[in-house]
UniProtKB/TrEMBL annotation:
Catalysed reactions, as listed in the record: 1-(5-phospho-beta-D-ribosyl)-ATP + diphosphate = 5-phospho-alpha-D-ribose 1-diphosphate + ATP
GO molecular function: ATP binding; ATP phosphoribosyltransferase activity
A matching Pfam family: HisG
InterPro entries: ATP_PRibTrfase_cat, ATP_PRibTrfase_HisG, ATP_PRibTrfase_HisG_short
UniProt-recorded name of the protein: ATP phosphoribosyltransferase
Keyword Transport: no
Subunit organization: Heteromultimer composed of HisG and HisZ subunits.
Domain ATP phosphoribosyltransferase catalytic: 53-197
Similarity comment: Belongs to the ATP phosphoribosyltransferase family. Short subfamily.
Organism taxonomic ancestry: Bacteria, Bacillati, Bacillota, Bacilli, Bacillales
GO biological process: L-histidine biosynthetic process
Pathway info: Amino-acid biosynthesis; L-histidine biosynthesis; L-histidine from 5-phospho-alpha-D-ribose 1-diphosphate: step 1/9
Domain description: Lacks the C-terminal regulatory region which is replaced by HisZ.
């Protein structure tokens, strides 16, 4: 048996869309069942459904052998995992954004304080960060901060709130991650599964 950690949100949808678009039908039906269960077993693969930022925690500990997580999560927190490969979905990017005509940004709201502080430190910019848990676009609109560091995908959230992108920080993709030990001790089973989902 191998255990695969998936998220419950956007990346789950992206993953099942990817399987469908590539006619990799084997796992779609059991994964798409409407239920509140947080795991499902298909043959010798157990899928667990976690919050995105928790996927690397399960994989690091070895209770999950592999997982799918956004590179934003891996950039924000340090995990002792194998960062195996990029997956062909979940594309978006981190940007600095704010109101048009905003001058020097001294205060920034973000969910991603580690990514933001590294970025501003490397640019030798003295910026105070305010940690928020979501809807960070509100912060510059209300004058809480001069700008934000956040994920941009379609750009609609920025546009609908009258904000513009100032600088792109980094690209984000879904990543296949693995436990450093069981990726080798369960190599055959993992390889079989990854072949079934078109990754290897
Ligand atoms: N527009 C976007 N906003 C946020 N994350 C995005 C976006 N587009 C792609 N992603 C990727 O999707 C991941 C978030 O999806 P995930 O399935 O973990 O949960 P979610 O959609 O945030 O939902 P929830 O937090 O309710 O579980 C991010 O880590 C990022 O890599
Ligand atoms: O460029 P877009 O396609 O509009 O996507 C970007 C938005 O999506 C995410 O928010 P999410 O919906 O996850 O909600 P949150 O603000 O509560 O994190 C992100 O934080 C942006 O707000």
């Amino acid at each position: 048996m191998i255990t695969v950690a998936l998220t419950k949100g956007r990346l789950f949808k992206d993953f099942t869309d990817y399987l469908e678009n590539n006619d990799l039908t084997q796992y779609i039906k059991p994964l798409s069942e409407e239920t509140r269960s947080l795991y499902t077993v298909v043959d010798n693969v157990k899928f667990i459904f976690a919050k995105g930022p928790d996927v690397p925690t399960y994989v690091e500990s070895g209770v999950a052998d592999i997982g799918i997580a956004g590179s934003d999560i891996i950039a924000e927190d340090k995990f002792n995992i194998l960062n195996v490969s990029q997956l062909p979905f979940g594309d978006c990017h981190f940007s600095v954004a704010g109101l048009p005509g905003q001058g020097e940004m001294k205060t920034i709201a973000t969910k991603y304080t580690n990514v933001a502080s590294k970025y501003f430190r490397e640019k030798k910019m003295d910026v105070s960060l305010v940690h928020l848990n979501g809807s960070v676009e509100l912060a510059p609109l209300l004058g809480l901060t001069d700008g934000i560091v956040d994920i941009v995908q379609t750009g609609n959230t920025l546009k609908d709130n009258g904000l513009i992108e100032y600088e792109k920080i980094m690209d984000i993709h879904a990543r296949l991650i693995a436990n450093k030990r069981t990726f080798y001790t369960k190599e055959d089973e993992i390889y079989k599964f990854l072949t079934e989902i078109g990754v290897f």
